[in-house]
Here is the input.
Amino acid sequence: MFQPHSLLWHYLWVAPSALLLVVGAIFYRRSLHRQFPVFLLFAVVQGITVLALYAMDLMPSVSDTFWWKANSIHLLIEVILKFALIGEIFSSVFRSYPALSKLGTTMVRGVGLVLVLTAVAVAVLAHPGSTAGMASASWVLNLSNFMIECGLLIFIFLFAAYFRLAWQRLAFGIALGRGFAASVQLATWSLLANLDLSHPTRQLVDSVNMGAYHVCILIWLYYVLTTPKPRPAPPGGDDRHYDHEWGEDQRQHDLVVWNRELERLLQ
Here is the structure.
C-alpha cells in the first residue's frame, strides 16, 4: 500500500499542494492577505515548488543529483518563508504591544536566517556535489527546522496563554495548523535520522509525515473559509483591533510596562 509510487503516494504529494493553492486563492479573494501577506506568499510559493518537485520526480530525464539540488533550494526557500510566517503570527498576537512585537518578529526571522546559513554550510562541507551529501544535508535542515519551529510555536502559545492575550481567529488557525504538522514531522524526521528503519517502515513514516502536512492544509482551509472578511478601517484610523477579551490584569500590566521601556530603549 505504502509504495513510493502508489496511488496514496501520488495523492499525498499532489493533493496538499494543490489544495494549498486553492487556500491561497480563497485567501486573496477574501482580502485576508492584507492582514497576513506572508501567508499568501508562503501558500503560493510552497504549492508551486512542491508540485514542480513532484513533476521532476516523475521525469526520467531528471537525475537524482539534479532533483536533490532542486529540493535543497526548495527547503531553503521554505525555511525562510516559514520563519517569516511565524514572525507574522508573533506580530499578530502581540499587536497591542508594538515594541515587543517588532523585537520578537525580528528575532524569529533572524533565527530562520541563521538556520538557512547553517544548512548551506553543512551542505557545502559535507560531501560537496554528491547525492548522499545533499540528502544528508536536507535531513539535517529538516530536523533542525522542525525542532526550532515547534519550540517557537509552543513559546507563542504558552506566552499568549500566560498573559491572556486575545488571538485573532486566523492567526490562531495558521499557528494551529503549523503546530500540528511541525510536531508530527519533528517526530518522523527524528525517527528517519536516528533509527536504522527498514525500507517499508521508512515509506510508512514518510506517508505519516505527508499526511500530517495534508491535515495542516485542511485546518488552514477551515479557518480561511470561516474567518470574516476584514472590515474597512475607520477614517484616520487603522485596521487593528485592540480589544482584550480578558481585561487587563497584572500580567498584562507587566507587558505594557515592558513594551514602554523597550520603546524608550529603542529610541
Notes: The chain has one domain: 17-229+246-266. The radius of gyration is 20 Å. Residues 131-162 form the longest helix (32 residues).
